TrEMBL record:
This is Putative glyoxalase superfamily protein PhnB. InterPro entries: Glyas_Bleomycin-R_OHBP_Dase (IPR029068), Glyas_Fos-R_dOase_dom (IPR004360), VOC_core (IPR037523). PROSITE patterns: VOC. Signal peptide: none annotated. CDD domains: VOC_like. It comes from the Bacteria. It comes from Vulcaniibacterium tengchongense. SUPFAM superfamilies: Glyoxalase/Bleomycin resistance protein/Dihydroxybiphenyl dioxygenase. Residues 6-128 form the VOC domain. Pfam families: Glyoxalase.
């Protein structure tokens, strides 16, 4: 694990199609791939380590034979606090993210919206409003 510190909380996603997810996260969120470990079956990824917006994100394909979860969580949102919500939003939508909540200036002072990636995970993007 290539984290800067042992004191961290790192989201770990289980997806159906981890290699495709890595490609999507690179296109949508500018992810940098740090590590990729193929499974013995040659079809799935046992583990991958990405860096998104300067922070770690790990993922793998589903491995039900090891008791790993197989479905995307419905109650989890990954939040990206960024410098320019519009730029990040547009890149993600162009890469294929589905709009779940439109990007708008919110009452709390942020420009904020939510997207759903092709693998079932929800992402929010926010930055201070420019108004």
């Amino acid at each position: 694990m290539n984290t800067k510190s042992r004191d961290a909380l790192i989201p770990y996603l289980t997806v159906d199609g981890a290699a495709r997810a890595i490609d999507f996260y690179k296109a949508a969120f500018g992810a940098e791939e740090l590590a990729r470990m193929p499974a013995e079956d040659g079809k799935r990824l046992m583990h991958a380590h990405l860096r998104v917006n300067g922070h770690d994100l790990m993922l793998s394909d589903a491995f039900p034979e090891y008791g790993a979860p197989t479905a995307a969580p419905a109650a989890v949102t990954l939040h990206l606090a960024v410098d320019d919500a519009d730029a990040w939003w547009n890149r993600a939508v162009e890469a294929g993210a589905e709009i779940a909540m439109a990007l708008e200036d919110q009452f709390w002072g942020d420009r904020y919206g939510q997207l759903r990636d092709p693998f079932g995970h929800r992402w929010s993007i926010g930055s201070p409003s420019r108004k």
